[in-house]
Design goal:
single chain, alpha/beta, 2 domains, five-stranded parallel β-sheet, 14 helices, elongated, DNA_Rep/Repair_Clamp_Loader, P-loop_NTPase, DNA polymerase III, delta prime subunit
């Protein structure tokens, strides 16, 4: 098919099989109009959706604008949280978003679909992420999925497919994205963040569990030293509290909410990784600590925990595992 890329886009490391599946569908006589891109958050689904949208709308001999400004690529994602955050977005800076994609956003998108594509015969609608659609938004979207406009293709990025209505899932062709292997993660980080020092790179791969996006978020928090200290606490304990003091210093006494969650997730992955070579007695304590860290990570964005006390709780949970490994009661 003309305009179909020959090779995997270079920023989609680890997803060769999914890209081949996509290309096979593109080469078919009648391509499905709605695609559900399913996998853990940060694994590369949004980047794949971007590349797939570019592939869809490309027309031989017609210059194509960048995807973010292409008239035939429509993006649905949470809006900035407020006017100040909108200004940050417009300035190209990181910004906070609303929790959900509103029904008004869906309806505004649907208004655009009544006209023909601008530069060619196809348009793409990327929803990132469909997990964040409000209930009314999902119901509104269903109308478009049931009766798609001519030449319109939907790419739904989904972290937890089970949260979508069965009526939505049933109208989509599913592409499943696996976590990357450690060597693939290394290649991805070498391309996406070649400036990382060795400690941060090693820690990011260990913490991210196969998701390059999660690795980059971890690296941005500069928690490599904290990760190293957490591993020491789990391995050797902390009977004199010295390692916990170092951990508090590495994380900071008053970390903001984003850093709190990052620290909790780092601790959770340190515990999860320690399970691989743990004996039976230690495994029980590790499982309990992991469950408590998961609960804290889930609650931290909502509840107004004292940051200092929360960091102390992380150290205490890790030290509890370490005491078990030392055989200390």
């Amino acid at each position: 098919m003309s305009g179909l890329p020959v090779d995997l886009p270079e920023d989609l490391i680890g997803h060769e099989a999914v890209w081949r599946e996509w290309r096979t569908a593109r080469a078919g006589h009648r391509m499905h109009h709605a695609w559900l891109l399913a996998g853990r958050e940060g694994v590369g689904k949004a980047g794949f959706a971007r590349a797939a949208a570019v592939d869809l709308v490309a027309e031989p001999g017609i210059p194509q604008p960048p995807p973010e400004h292409h008239p035939d690529i429509h993006w649905l994602r949470p809006l900035p949280a407020n006017d100040d955050e909108a200004k940050k977005r417009d300035d190209g800076r990181p910004y906070l978003t609303k929790r959900n994609i509103s029904v008004d956003q869906v309806r505004e998108m649907q208004k655009r679909l009544v006209t023909r594509p601008t530069l060619g015969s196809r348009r793409a609608v990327i929803i990132d992420a469909a997990d964040l659609l409000e209930k009314a938004s999902v119901n509104a979207l269903l109308k478009s999925l049931e009766e798609p406009p001519q030449g319109t293709f939907f790419l739904l990025v989904v972290h937890q497919p089970g949260r979508l209505l069965p009526t939505v899932r049933s109208r989509c062709q599913v592409l499943r994205f696996r976590p990357l292997e450690p060597d693939e993660m290394g290649h991805a980080l070498d391309r996406l963040a070649p400036e990382l020092d060795a400690l941060t790179r090693e820690a990011a791969i260990a913490v991210a569990a196969g998701a390059p996006g999660a690795a980059l978020s971890f690296a941005a928090q500069e928690l490599g030293p904290a990760w190293q200290i957490m591993r020491k606490i789990v391995a050797h304990g902390d009977h004199d509290l010295s390692l916990r003091a170092q951990l508090s210093a590495a994380i900071g006494q008053r970390p903001d909410r984003e850093r709190q969650v990052a620290a909790l997730n780092t601790a959770r992955m340190v515990v999860a990784n320690a399970l691989h070579d743990a004996d039976d007695a230690t495994r029980l304590r590790l499982v309990d600590a992991h469950g408590r860290l998961v609960a804290l990570a889930r609650e931290a964005p909502t509840y107004n925990y004292d940051p200092g006390l929360l960091m102390l709780e992380i150290g205490a949970l890790l030290a509890g595992v370490g005491r078990t490994r030392e055989g200390i009661n």
